Here is the input.
Amino acid sequence: MSNPPVAASAAPVLLETIENGVAFLVMNRPDKLNSLNSELATALNQTFEKIAKNDAVRVVVLTGAGRAFCAGGDLAAIGKGREARDSKQLEPILRMGMGAMLRMRMIPQPVIAAVNGAAVGAGMNVALAADIRIAAEEAVFGQTFVKVGLFPDYGGTYFLPQLVGSSKAAEMFYTGDIIDAQTALKLGLVNRVVPGAQLEAEVKKFATRLAAGPPIAIRAVKQTLFGSEKDALGKALEAEVQHQMRCFASEDCLEGIRAFFEKRPPTFKGR
Here is the structure.
């Protein structure tokens, strides 16, 4: 696994290496904290589709380049689209994200999210779509959509209540509060927390251990745990897109994004 601070213009937005049966995927927009634009969402979708057909890959590890795992949707692009009332800046990110999350959950291989830093908004939900999450001590998590007048997407309304219950999920969605890695561990959002300097080695060791296991049995376990979710997850993802597009068109969304970039509290008026 590699977590290089590579400039996004110098390499693809998703780096991929395969070693000893483990596919290491690195979201590579470090200058944008690996925020999701149409290009990255498309790359995730296409890569998971390809990996699902590769029997040589037994385990997948997903992480982020630089100091963040994924900071959610690219608010600069989304804000530009909202200012212009152009849904084309958002809907492709949502549609490709739908496919990526569904494929990530349904591919036969176990997926480990190595959360090396901030995982907020859609970035948190990318992590939740993995089978297992290992976080660095420095990692933080948050369902921050509400702060910019948007709706949780990338499967958040499906994954989060499963892990923490509907009441805690509601609190996280309603407030958008950020939690640290130890709190995430107590809530059951991550499987373990390790010092940041040890994250790469610990994840690689664990992934290699899983890759050495019996693939027929492990894939059968994954299918048993998650395979029946396909229809329900697909419906949840589609509902998220519909709600998100409605919220995107609202004045509250425009105000929220403007306030974010102007570094001031937003004033939401419910329209």
Remarks:
- DSSP finds eleven helices and ten strands in the chain.
